[in-house]
Every structure is written in structure tokens, then in C-alpha cells.
């Protein structure tokens, strides 16, 4: 049996597992088997990171994310900046200009007000940098022991040009996969903080807003099929989703994938595959082959894309699968993970 | 010293208290001292239940709420229907037609999938009844013991007629206060469920969408200044907010406030004031005096307003305060509560 076409294992569980929030196969199962059948509509069915809405003549993007990252503060950011960047980025990768955010807090009784002030101040700075306004909010408090310090939800609204149609179902054989910079920084930074690990060189989260990089790419007029910010589940999960949704194969070149030496070392030490590690300020873009070079050049001109690289291509073979040609020349399947190697990284 | 003008006590705390989520004075303090200075913009500064946004020629309302109700299931509803109604109502009381909702779940590891299915199914029914679509979502999972079963955030977008200008700062002396029906059902239903209390007659949550009642009221063309759904903190907190924001006094007539005998009895038994108890399907409307009768009649014609009543009026005296003429003819101040008599009711 061709290993590329053998059926995927089926997961059956009666209770929620950590992996249901991991952005991998269990998350996808939950979406397909519980949420989509219940709420099913053509907008939700797109299963992208944002919904596109037509309201009163305007074309809007709408998205939401809850943040449960642990610990709340880490090298390079905190739950506040992450909550702003995460929602800004989900709008931006849909081609939308992020405009307005909501912010809803669930706080644990006894949470230090000083920590809340720091987090709120970090949200303010992140919102200013991303040119969005936080316009509505909510605060709930639960008894001590009923939540882990604080959780934040942000929802966001952006405006989209009516001619744009970026979606995970748009990738076509021959298309090129671009990545804006080195992977795994965020996940490894969180893990290091959480476990008290100190790596030789400190690894800092890449949490950042992508709206400006995206605006530069859109301004080139290049034919972009789809963009993603590869957060939970990493580049592997985002590429798997695109392959499945577009019904194409994606082949990555291991040697071309940007990766810091420190992150590579930490992953080797910890037995983690950087392809599955979360990023919070990286952009994955699929574009038409004839536009790949100038789109890559535009990425590299932007400070957040200085480490950009062409990491792979779309194939008609291996439909629905992500494969990688390893440094040694072998080809392996990079499956969606069932469970979550690094829970609560966002 | 006139008790009506004595300064309000000041609260100073270094940690989050349950009352910071109670919708009373500590909530207002947190908003004014932490969130508003950080995020400050003219839209957030309105401090209403929803933000009004102008995007691409459309006038939109945008709102968010997290739901941490305990228990998850109660007589008359569950966290799912509550999460839909809560956000639908925050849009509706701004005069918006609710259109689209996001749904973000924080689930505890080990949460029964069957319970999730029930809650999601309840959300679907509530969304259908309110004619809204759930178009985007998110799921996070935290370790067992890190949250209380599940929390839900919903954010919502609605469209508003450009000529409407409903806001808590619009109340004027002489205006009339209308209420759509009996108060306290939701809070007491939750409390009964939580504490295993069984009252002689079972009390059922009033959780319901208000969009249709609001549409009927707007269709009358009456001059409505402001509407609220008096949830956390009850009618007392909503009226206090309006009095403070408009710089007017509000005087309620105790005898005119609709209240079920069972709820009155439960409140007496438990030492609770029904004016502070949460409602999840009641509408408070402030309108011009000349339109009060026909607006009340329109309320009463709607099934959800059958128990509607004219409960008070706006005064120039006692600016910023809510007072109540009691059944015995005395007048008392109904202050904003500092702490939360009934935490986690939504």
C-alpha cells in the first residue's frame, strides 16, 4: 500500500483532550463533527481564520480568538500583546485591513491588579502599533482556582477590498509557498519560560502584527492565493489545512525552511519537530509561480520578512497531503498531529 | 449632610475581587481606572453595551461578552443559549439588527463531549431564533483544574439605522422609564440550581433574545433615548449607569416594578434585593414622556413584553443618583453595589 494514500487513523473520544485545542487533527475533528454541523453556514464552512461578511455595501472580515497562554509573561511579549497580534493577524492574512477589536477578560479572584495593568498597557501598545482601536469589552471574574490567572478573548473587524479572494481553497498545482522568516521562536520561547529552561542563546517570541507586511505584499499586485499565520500546530498544520481544503499536495524543501540554530538545538534537545511549533509573527503565503520572485523580494524588503524564503510548491500529486523532501533527499509525509505537543502557547 | 449628596466611598484594592466582574461599582472602577485610560478612544468612552462603528458606508454595532455561568445548565437555559442571547441583546438594545456572531470556547480537559454537543445545539437553536449566523470561532483547551468546565465568548455585529442615536447619555428630565416584565427570574433560577434550593414554585430563567421586541418598539417611531438589558447588577445598576452618564436623577416607583411572587419570596428568604438581581430577557427603555403610553402599549402587545410596566421617571433633581419611592411612601437611594451579591450568573 502506498503510504501516501493509506487512510488516516480515526479518533474517537468521549471527552475533551488537550489536542482538541491544539490546532491539529483533533481540533479539525471537533470543528467538522461538532461545530460545523450545528452552526453550519456557507461562511463558517470556509474554515479559514476569518469570516468574510457583506454588510451595508461593505466587505468585512470578522474573527475571534481566546488566549490562554501560560505563563502570562514571556520573553518578547505577554498574553496582552499576543491577544492583539493574534486577532490582527487573522484579519491581515485574509487580506483585510484590521480596524476594530473587542477585548474580553476572564480574571481569577485575587489576580494582582498590577499584572492586569501591565497586560492592558501591553495591549494598548500592540493596538497602536497595529493601528487598531479597542472599542468594546467585557470583564468577568471567577473564584480563585476557577481559571488560570487570566484568559483574554479578542474579536476583530477589518475591511477587505471587494476584488480580493484569499482562501485556503485557492492553491493550485505549480503555485509557490513562501515563508516570511524562521519558525518555532514563539513556541520554544514559551516552553523555555514555562519549564525554566535556559538555552545557550535566549530565544524570544516572534509575536508581532503582520498587517504592514501583508499590506506591502498586496500592494505588489502579485497573485496571492492564500495567506496564513502558522500559529498553533505550526507550518505543518497550516500547510496540511491548505492541502486538504484546496485538494492539492504541498511539498516543502527541508533545506529551504528558515530556522534559527538556537531553535533547532532546542527542538533536538526536546524531541520536538519545529514544523509543528507555533509562530506568532510569521506569514505563510501561497502565490502564482510567475509572481513568486517579486513577492519574495517584497517580503524581504520588509523588516519582518528579512529572513523570508521560498520553502516549497503545490503539486497535483499527493492530494490533501503535506510532504517534505528532507536534507538527505528522502520524501516524508508531514501529517497533521493528533495531539498537541505544546499546549497553551497562545 | 444630605444623604443624597454625600460622597460615595472609594474602593482601593491591589487584587481582583469578585465584584470587579459584578457589573456594579467595582466593575465601573476597573473600566474607568484601568481599561478606559489605556484603550481610551471616543467609541469605547461611550461606555454603552455596544460600540458603534462607521465602516465603508455602513453603521455597525459591535459587542462582546464572555460567559462563565455556573452551573452550565439551569432551568430555562444553559451557557450556550445565554451566550447567544447575551450578545444578541447587547446589539438589540443599541437599536441594531443583530446579524453575525463569533463563538470562542475555552474547554477543560476531560469535559464530556456530550455536554459540549448539548450546549452547541442550544447555541444553534438560540441563533436561529434570533436570526443570527455564527460565522467564526475558536477553541482552546486547558488542563483539568485550569478552568471551570467551559467558558464561552461571543462577539457580535449588527447593523444600525444611521438616524438612530440610542445611548446612556440621552436621558432627559421628564422622560419615562419602562420595563418589559418581571425582574430577577434569571439570577434566582441560577442561584436555586447552584445551591440546590427548591422553591415552592420553580423559578425559570428568562433568558431570551430581545431583537424582536426591540424591532417592534423602534417601528412605533416613538422617541426612545436609551435601552438596556438589565443583566449583571440588575435594574439598579443599569439605572445608576444611565443616571450617571446622562447627569440626571432616576426615580423608580417600587409598587410599579413587576416582580413574581416566587422571586419576591426567594429574595426575602435569601436577603437579596431583586433590583440587583440579573435578568437575561428583560428590556429597560427610557423614552420621551409624550411617547410613553404608546411605547408601553407596543411593549405589552409583544409576547415578551406582556408584563411591561411604567416603573419611573427621569428627574433633574438628584443628578447621577437612582432613588426609589417605596411602597410605604419613603424615598431611598438605590446605590450601585460595590461587590457582587450573585457572582457568575452569566
From TrEMBL, chains A, B:
Q: Which Gene3D superfamilies match?
A: PurM-like C-terminal domain, PurM-like, N-terminal domain
Instruction: Describe the location of the PurM-like C-terminal domain by residue ranges.
Output: 172-318
Leader peptide range in chain numbering: none
Q: Name one GO biological process term.
A: protein maturation
The protein's superkingdom reads Bacteria
Q: Name one Pfam family in it.
A: AIRS
Annotated PurM-like N-terminal domain ranges read 48-160
Give the UniProt family note: Belongs to the HypE family.
Q: What is this protein called?
A: Hydrogenase expression/formation protein HypE
**Source organism of the structure:** Silvibacterium bohemicum
Q: What is the lineage of its organism?
A: Bacteria, Pseudomonadati, Acidobacteriota, Terriglobia, Terriglobales
Amino acid at each position: 500500500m502506498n503510504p501516501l494514500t493509506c487512510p488516516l487513523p480515526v479518533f474517537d473520544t468521549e471527552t475533551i483532550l488537550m489536542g482538541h485545542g491544539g490546532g491539529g487533527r483533533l481540533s479539525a475533528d471537533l470543528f467538522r463533527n461538532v461545530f460545523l454541523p450545528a452552526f453550519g453556514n456557507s461562511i463558517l464552512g470556509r474554515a479559514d481564520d476569518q469570516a468574510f461578511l457583506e454588510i451595508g455595501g461593505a466587505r468585512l472580515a470578522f474573527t475571534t480568538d481566546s488566549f490562554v497562554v501560560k505563563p502570562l509573561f514571556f520573553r518578547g511579549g505577554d498574553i496582552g500583546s499576543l491577544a492583539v497580534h493574534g486577532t490582527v493577524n487573522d484579519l491581515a492574512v485574509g487580506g483585510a485591513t484590521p480596524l476594530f477589536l473587542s477585548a474580553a477578560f476572564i480574571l481569577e479572584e485575587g489576580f494582582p491588579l498590577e499584572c492586569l495593568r501591565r497586560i492592558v498597557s501591553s495591549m494598548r501598545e500592540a493596538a497602536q502599533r497595529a493601528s487598531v482601536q479597542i472599542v468594546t469589552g467585557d470583564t468577568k471574574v471567577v473564584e480563585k482556582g476557577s481559571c488560570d490567572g487570566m484568559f483574554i478573548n479578542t474579536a476583530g473587524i477589518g475591511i477587505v477590498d471587494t476584488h480580493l479572494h484569499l482562501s485556503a481553497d485557492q492553491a493550485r498545482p505549480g503555485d509557490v509557498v513562501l515563508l516570511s522568516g524562521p519558525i518555532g521562536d514563539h513556541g520554544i520561547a514559551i516552553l523555555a519560560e514555562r519549564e525554566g529552561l535556559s538555552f545557550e542563546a535566549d530565544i524570544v517570541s516572534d509575536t508581532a502584527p503582520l498587517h504592514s507586511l501583508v499590506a506591502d505584499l498586496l500592494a505588489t499586485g502579485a497573485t496571492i492565493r492564500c495567506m496564513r499565520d502558522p500559529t498553533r500546530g505550526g507550518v505543518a498544520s497550516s500547510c496540511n489545512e491548505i492541502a486538504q481544503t484546496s485538494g492539492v499536495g504541498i511539498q516543502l524543501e527541508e533545506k529551504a525552511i528558515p530556522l534559527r540554530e538556537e531553535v533547532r538545538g532546542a527542538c533536538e534537545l526536546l524531541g520536538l519537530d519545529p514544523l509543528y511549533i507555533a509562530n506568532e509573527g510569521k506569514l505563510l503565503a501561497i502565490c502564482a509561480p510567475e509572481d513568486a520572485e517579486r513577492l519574495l523580494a517584497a517580503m524581504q524588503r520588509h523588516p519582518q520578512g528579512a529572513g523570508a524564503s521560498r520553502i516549497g510548491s503545490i503539486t497535483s500529486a499527493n492530494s490533501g497531503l503535506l510532504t517534505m523532501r528532507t536534507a538527505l533527499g528522502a520524501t516524508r509525509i508531514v501529517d497533521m498531529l493528533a495531539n498537541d505537543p505544546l499546549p497553551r502557547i497562545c
